[in-house]
Amino acid sequence: MVSSRAKKVTTQTLLKMKQSGEKIAMLTAYDYSLWARLVDGAGIDVILVGDSASNVMAGNETTVPITLDQMIYHAQCVINGVDRALVVVDMPFGSYQGDSKTALDSAIRIMKESGGHAVKLEGGAEVCESVKRIVEAGIPVMGHLGLTPQSIYKFGTYSVRAKEEAEAARLIEDSKALEEAGCFSVVFEKIPSELAKQASESLTIPTIGIGAGPDCDGQVLVLHDMLGITKDFSPRFLRRYADLGGAAEAAVSQYVADVRSQDFPNEEERY
Q1: In the chain, how many domains are there?
Q2: For this structure, is 189 an active site residue?
Q3: Nearest to 79 by CA among 121, 122, 42, 47
Q4: Residue 257 belongs to what domain range?
Q5: What is the CA 197 to chain-centroid distance, rounded?
Q6: Which one of 189, 194, 267, 268 is the catalytic residue?
Q7: Are the C-beta atoms of residues 192 and 164 closer than 8 Å to each other?
Q8: pLDDT digits (tens, 9 = 90+) for 54-81
């Protein structure tokens, strides 16, 4: 466990980690008691309050339905459980795509109402004006390129992005544009490993990979996936570090059996 007095992770911490070659560990979290305290205490560098909450917490098919109010709620819960990690909050679909003023207003709400430390948004050159405006207001921004789940209805598939030369070149250009716009980091999701390596080496800001190979400056996974809580999602890049879903199901089944057999509560478990 990491001491609660351990030095706070900031955007500058991540930059220094890239410069020194130290890899950045990032995971999602969505609540206080179950995950934020545990993940932070285990030494994670960055916690992403992801719009993946739409899938793993609400059961939606995509990330599109989750609202700004819901993201702020989840971020508030996470912030209450964190001492050390940098907490980045996803800006949900519809909260920044319209224009830069809408984007700034949404980012300000997230920061003021949740206490988060930074925001993340998807897209390349088309969102750079919004990135600049948010950064100029003093809010750190993380970018997101490659597979961008909020655009799933545009892509029509969750397959690997930027395999073709033109799209790969555009990803490199977009990553540099995000850096120039003021992003402190960028996530590369589900792109070829060699492209992620090339892009990471071309940027001075840290890159975080998910399905983008080992040469990014850090890695991120969805907590529920890597802990085996979700069962119906098994992409190549996912490593399951536990089977908490199976353990929880077994525990509940045993509880049901104990209640029905009147084994619970026993003599020592009553007043």
Answers
A1: 2
A2: yes
A3: 47
A4: 244-271
A5: 20
A6: 189
A7: no
A8: 999 999 999 999 999 999 999 999 999 9
